[in-house]
Design brief:
291 residues, alpha+beta, Jelly Rolls, 2 domains, 8-stranded antiparallel beta sheet, 18% helix, 33% strand
Length: 291
């Protein structure tokens, strides 16, 4: 009986989300991509956008169902803080990437006491940025984005890794937008965007994370740590969530850039969320250059 009541509640939430999504995309009544009234020949609906929004909602549905039944989304495990042995061990090698060696130490970019070399990014309407009692960096809700950016030169612009642990506390959009240098440009690794489910790089060949070949759809639980890692070499851009590789992008012939807009304020290194409360810890950098 307990599971039946949960399924009924979930069904009601599913329908409500579908109606809200359709109204937000098409500004008329419907559910997901299906209108209650027949579309006219002059409809301006964008099928690609609708499909992307539907996929993002499916990620939220997976998360909601997992929470209601106290299950984890498929392929997702809690990311424990890396031990010293793990931090100094070799990571995965990949096509075109320099293999990391154990003599490349991790450099901490966040001391757990204050912002240090970080500063709150003035997007306009941003939420409060604080270091909480647990020593984690925490973002409150903002009108749009809330985040921090590195106040100084980055340690490198290629042949490095940057990583952090991130936890969504509340909200329904991205809880990580990690901006980082890629040679003479910058990019952003978006985690949980476009309604909570899109993962990818913005931008590749002027296409954002929901449009280019790096796009994935994932579900994310609240109050759970995820290990986010980005590797930039001269030949490749790679990214992982926990141990699952999300991005493996050869850079040859690709234009890497930031999505025009507020995210440009996050350079040279930035962390941001969109209308979402989140926490961060273990913000670290590793040099991968040849000695």
């Amino acid at each position: 009986m307990k599971y039946i009541s949960r399924i009924i509640v979930f069904g009601g939430v599913f329908v409500a989300v579908g109606m809200l999504l359709h109204f937000g995309v098409y500004h008329k009544l419907g559910i997901f991509v299906w209108p209650f009234e027949k579309e006219g020949e002059n409809s301006k609906a964008n099928p690609r956008r609708a499909a992307m929004e539907l996929l993002a909602v499916e990620g939220e549905v997976e998360t909601a169902l997992a929470q209601s039944l106290r299950l984890e989304p498929a392929g997702r495990k809690e990311a424990a803080p890396p031990t010293e042995a793990e931090s100094n061990s070799k990571t995965e090698s990949e096509l075109g990437a320099k293999e990391q060696t154990s003599d490349s130490p991790l450099i901490s970019l966040f001391n757990g006491k204050d912002l240090g070399d970080w500063e709150s990014t003035r997007y306009g309407g941003e939420g409060e940025v604080m270091v909480n009692e647990e020593g984690n960096l925490e973002f409150d809700f903002g009108a749009v984005m809330t985040g921090v950016n590195w106040n100084g030169e980055p340690p490198a612009t290629s042949n490095y890794e940057i990583s952090l642990d991130a936890m969504k506390l509340d909200g329904y959009d991205f809880f990580v937008a990690l901006t980082f240098p890629v040679k003479d440009s910058h990019a952003t690794f978006v985690v949980g965007g476009w309604g909570g489910g899109v993962v990818g790089i913005s931008s590749v060949d002027d296409l954002n994370a929901s449009e280019n070949e790096t796009m994935n759809i994932e579900g994310f639980l609240k109050d759970q740590w995820y290990r986010i890692r980005v590797r930039v070499t001269d030949e490749h851009l790679s990214a992982w969530i926990d141990e699952q590789q999300m991005v493996n992008l050869p850079l040859e012939g690709k234009k890497i850039s930031l999505l025009p807009g507020d995210i440009e304020l996050s350079v040279p290194i930035g962390i941001a969320s969109f209308q979402t409360r989140a926490q961060y810890r273990n913000i670290q950098w590793r040099d991968l250059s040849e000695k």
